[in-house]
Batch of 3 targets.
Target 1
Amino acid sequence: MANDYFWAGFNTTGGYAFLANFYNHQLFINSNEDLLLDSDFYIDYSQSYNNSVSTIFWAPSAAKRALHNPNVITIVSAITGFRAMDACKLPWMFTQYCWLDFNQIWSLASTNRREQRYQNMSSNAAMYVEAGLRNIRDWKSWDNCWGTSFNIGINNYLKTSSQGQAWLYAIKTNTNSQMRCHNGNHIIYNILICSLTYSLLLSRIPHSFHPTQQTLMLMYWLFASDLWAVSTNLCLIGGMSPIRSSSNFAFNNISSKDILIQKSNIGKSSIGWICSIEKSTRSIQIIL
């Protein structure tokens, strides 16, 4: 055979390109459906597949759609993604953490209402900082980027109890990772022919990280912001802790709104955020 798929006449600009475009289109509108490749309904008139050059198209939004597809984002792929992630980017994940640990001992809720709302989210591992920390591949990199902030906001309080000390030790020496859900922007789709081990690439969307190109976040406060805010004397919660049970809890008498208003006066911070207050609508916008 001229190829490894036992498919007579199969080549890169013909059969391969047609199949790739066919499945990429179907993945855009369906995630699980039986398809008949010999059906006239699926004839592709967009280009000729008998020339020396053909084009494979895929949707740039494929990675985002995959985040909501349980057949794509599995426990295995989530943990694999965590372990491949740059540790410095972990606090930038777009999630609102409810608890520091899986046992829900240390709450990160800044308000009573938020803490009540979190009770309905306990089965989602994205609500726990521990999910990411357990899978950090390079603690030296983490310490270089966030070590000072994490010590001020988290470690200093946890070290006041034997339970907290044990948790910190377990996190850094962990060998049994736990994770229920995760998201990311990097994805590779492949198809298998006749269950053979030779896969065909359908699309490849590389991971990208561009915080300075973010146009607008409205009334949102990332965990990265918590870590930044507790590490600087320029902020109202400098030197405090985001852990709710701490006697030095950052949001006892200070709200996120107070910090955002203060940051509008501080100007551009070390993480590149500028806060501005729109007086006409009385809304606070964080603009990167």
Target 2
Amino acid sequence: ALSVHEDAKKDSKSSKTGTECVSLWKLMTSAVKSLDRDDSWWTANIGGGRDVFVGRIAVLSSYLVQSGFVESAADGVQSRVIGASGTDGDPLSVLIDLITTLLLVAGERDTRNGVASEKCAAFASALKESRLMGLPGVLYRLLCIENVSYDRSTPAELSSQLLHIVNQTLRLFNTLALVDKTLLEDCLKDEEMVVMLTHSFAVLLTWLCRMTDMDAMDLLLPRLLVAVGHFAAVSQRAQALTVLGGQHSIVQQLCVLPFRYFSDPALMRLLFPTLIACCFRRTSAVSLLKQELSPKLLSTFITEQSSSIEVQSTTVDTPAFASRFSKKLWPEAILFFESA
């Protein structure tokens, strides 16, 4: 399998090799996803069990970093050599899926696999050096530049191809935040990346809230809310930009989401942490917030979370509040929104 990748590096213009490389990426992705199986399955079917397999994935991740795979793939994405047809089998989709699943392995906190996780962490670091595979730039280009027909005054529909790429990119962003928030913070020190993501998130919010395809909206909007929350929580520059744009600013649009996001407890747990991350310690954001709802709703939400005895599980799409907004800031945030 690794020889296929070496051949692809030597002959990147070969369509046959390119097809084989995509097949290899799919194989890697399937292998990593199989880690979800329980220990008994591993003991019965794989010699050495799950720990041995995780070690092999760690070696694979290390190889992909040392061979320059991440950098060359990022170059391919940015130069559009690796294109996007918006289907499960196109090179960009397979690549994003592979990177995301490998990141999840890198983020394993199982003490049995500590060494393996350290090796996989090098893969996450390579993402930083490649500016997240160049995907923020791809997202910005697709949403804000190439869609020249975009008109804020009339409803618009996103193509299914674009929705597919956006969905995968948001999942990758949220996975990185879950795996290593410090690494995400380092990535967002890149001013250009922050600006591109701000514009992309704002345009995407506008589009999603006007979509007639409710299934697509219900898939993407929650994932976008989580991404915006991570975005504002780890970067003060990003937080500052969420208030720019008047009625089309990120904060303003968050405040006028469909009513169910303010009444359904499950959806409130997605939206309110994002509003808190965008508005905390920022009076300009609170001023926008107060045009639509009382800041006391946010202080009440934090108070309820702090007094809850329910243990919240954390996943990429439904992270616990404590993983989105530092618990040590809760007392200050309660006072801030209570007195706003």
Target 3
Amino acid sequence: MSNKVHVKKGDTVVLLTGEGKEAGKKGKVLEVNTKDGTVIVEGMNIVKKHQKPRSQYQQGGIINKEAPIHASNVMLVCPKCGKPTKVRRRILENGEKIRECKKCNGTIDVIREAKK
């Protein structure tokens, strides 16, 4: 069962909660997991992974990587007004489905093209 997530890959989001210094930071969504309702944001929630060498030629060590964040802890930043906002989905008269900013009513992007 997949859950609807209000952000897409490539969106700019702001972190609402986090480890003190990370709250309020902006980043780009790298990956969305609808099954778990989580997102991976560039430069946020960095964890250290201890990795063993898998082959004779690969080097092991400690790797920094982004960990998933629950989608409820991020908010989309509107590309038009630049403010964190909730997302409204709307179907226009011509059948086009869009994502819209609730603060400035600007179109964020088109989800589905108009039916011909």
